Known about the structure:
Elements: E1 12-13, E2 16-17, H1 18-24, E3 28-29, E4 33-39, E5 45-47, E6 50-52, H2 59-69, E7 71-72, E8 77-89, E9 92-103, E10 106-121, H3 124-130, E11 136-142, H4 149-166, E12 175-181, E13 184-189, H5 192-206, E14 209-220, E15 225-236, E16 244-247, E17 250-257, E18 261-266, E19 271-276, E20 284-287, E21 293-300, E22 304-308, E23 315-319, E24 332-338, E25 341-344
Parallel strand pairs: 4-10, 11-15
Antiparallel strand pairs: 1-2, 3-7, 5-6, 8-9, 9-10, 11-13, 12-13, 14-15, 16-17, 16-20, 17-18, 18-19, 21-22, 21-24, 22-23, 24-25
Bound molecules: zinc ion (ZN) (2 copies).
One zinc ion binds next to helix 3.
Amino acid sequence: MFCLLCDSEEKLYDGLCKKCFLREYKPVEVPEFATFKVCSHCGATQKHDKWVQTGYYDDEIINDAIQKDIKIDPKLEDVEITTEIINNRGTVYECMLHIYGKVIDEYIEKDYPIEVKVEKSVCPDCSKFYSGYYEAVIQLRADERKLTDEEIQKADEFISNEIQRLCKTNKLAYVVERIVLKEGVDYQIGSYNSAHKIAVNLQKQFGGTVKESRKIVGHDKSRSRDLYRTWLSVRIPSFNRGDFIEYEDTPYEVEKIGSHKITVKNLKKGEEEHITWKQADDIRKVKTADDIQETTITNITPNEIQILDPDNYMTVDLKLNDNTRKLNIGEQIKVIKIKDRIYIL
Length: 345
Ligand SMILES: [Zn+2]
Ligand SMILES: [Zn+2]
């Protein structure tokens, strides 16, 4: 048997002597050019199957683009590939590909020029943004009343700040639309995770409760799973600090609205207590600070205090508690009337 190219009688590889084989051997199939995608909107680049935010096209992305588009001969072992950017003209990179590896027990090294072109595209996140896609709706509501203009303005500012913070790490953190309704304001948010964080923080800011419900809105065939949209209802309380509420048949004055609980004064006992937002469904607002009245103490006995009803000036006897024990006859005091009973504040 002879080498097909030089008639040598040495050991043959694919019909060629070692020298001819190594000369003719192509360790890699190099296309005319390789490509990588860049989002025209946000500049993200596609790396393998993922879109990544990078500062700009770097060597690693060029290297990945080349590796994706070349085919390495399976006979080549111990392969090492490096790429070098020789020149950059706009969206075209002229590169040199260095291949190093072992074939038929000989180490070879070959260089190939290759062009890498930037392909303008739209990343999935931008495509969602431009199509108005949203995963969640924050429904801002007030319990048993309308939201005040001040509350709406505060919530708008709060949400806008939250979005600016969250969109640095989540491109779906955007508001598609803000819709003013009779019952409140709806904010359509691109990302469920961001919407959830905002809803939780809104509750911390305004008090009240957050309730979540979700519905199937479609089906993703490519991943064979249902697509959901979530509604996050943030319900801020009907009452404010200084209002009077009723909870489990007991009247309270609201002293402080916190993120986890409401600090209240029990008007029967004159003591401070707490009601958590989980229990808050049963709270009813009964009076406001505007309903506070003034009256006079007419008598004090060891167990009772006598005052005048501010509406009809009839005397009323009330049991003394720790709060009222320190008062004196003739003193002017503030009272609130709830369900025809008078409580000293
Ligand atoms: Zn030969
Ligand atoms: Zn993009």
